Amino acid sequence: MPADDHRLTTPEMARFVVDGFLRFDGLVPDALNARAVEEMRLLLPVKLARFGREVPEEPEGLPQPVTGVPLSACHPPPSAIGEVLRLPAVRGVIASLVGPDPVYDHDFVHFVPAGSPHRQHLHVDAIVDSADPGFDVQLFYFATEVRPGEGGTRIVPGTHLRRVRAEGLGRYQRIRGEQQISCPAGTVLVAHHGLWHAGQPNPGARERWMYKIRLGPTVPQVRLWNTADLEALQNDASDHVFATVPAESVGRMLRRRHPWQRGHEERYDLRQRALLWRHLTGDATYDVDYYLTRVERRDALAPAGERA
Ligand SMILES: O=C(O)CCC(=O)C(=O)O
User: Fold this and answer.
1) Which of 189, 212, 213 to mutate to test the pocket of ligand 1 (most atoms within 8 A of CB)?
2) In terms of CB atoms within 10 Å, which of 32, 162, 183, 286 comes out highest?
3) What global pTM score does this model have?
4) SS3 string of the chain?
């Protein structure tokens, strides 16, 4: 049930908390995708040169944003990339997660030529973020069709709440439940900054053009989505899989297990998801399976000097 202003629904927000991303297939119309690819062709040398610490000239009429400016100041008309970022459907997704005018962190053009054997190792971009539940988003915009196995990004759903060292991940070659994105042109994937991912080879005959932008919140990330359905779905702290489980609730949605979360492994992530849901709802008593409340209640009984 997308809202009129395209903001996300509560089940979609819960899915973001569980998976660390949401994808919207074919969201951007073909004519705009074609213009965006042409713009990326012009920008790629600029981005690569800057990465190499050069100061290249910007293409005429396409001023590139500076870190720290509001998104509304980025990629002004006639930029096709700006037009994508200003589509009501894209703005609704962004506004739901980081507010209506988030801060621009950086962006990049990720081009994989046809036949490229280049493979990135699995990594996270945000290895020096703090441990609080606040988050940035990264928008992956696939401007060209990506056929199965032809250069789509490899992602591991549900890994975004693990605190890892980026290079420590590089050794993992296969993880149960990982996906390699294939999608129609115009697909937008919005990810939590902690999602594990890697660029892949493109043995196909088509170029793969993807634009990625990182955005940070400028307002508290509390109830920014369409919360019309929240009251009916929000569970209280008595939610416990071995005792009390409401028929339909956010808790049920958050409890979904990924294939790599075996045995009791999922409990670490469930606790992190509950903390993130507290952050998103402003409800400091929210819980799933009682993990947070149990410890907090015990802690409140401890002598002052022993409290965590
Ligand atoms: O090219 C890709 O598919 C992913 C690239 C990327 O996200 C990165 O380098 O951090």
Assistant:
1) 212
2) 286
3) 0.95
4) CCCCCCCCCHHHHHHHHHHCEEEECCCCCHHHHHHHHHHHHHHHHHHHHHHCCCCCCCCCCCCCCCCCCEHHHCCCCCCHHHHHHCCHHHHHHHHHHHCCCCEEEEEEEEEECCCECCCCCCECCCCCCCCCCCCCEEEEEECCCECCCCCCCEECCCCCCCCCCHHHHCCCCCCCCCEECCECCCEEEEEECCCCEECCCECCCCCEEEEEEEEECCCCCCCCCCHHHHHHHCCCCCCECCCECCCCCHHHHHCCCCCCCCCCCHHHHHHHHHHHHHHHHCCCCCCCCCHHHHHHHHHHHCCHHHCC
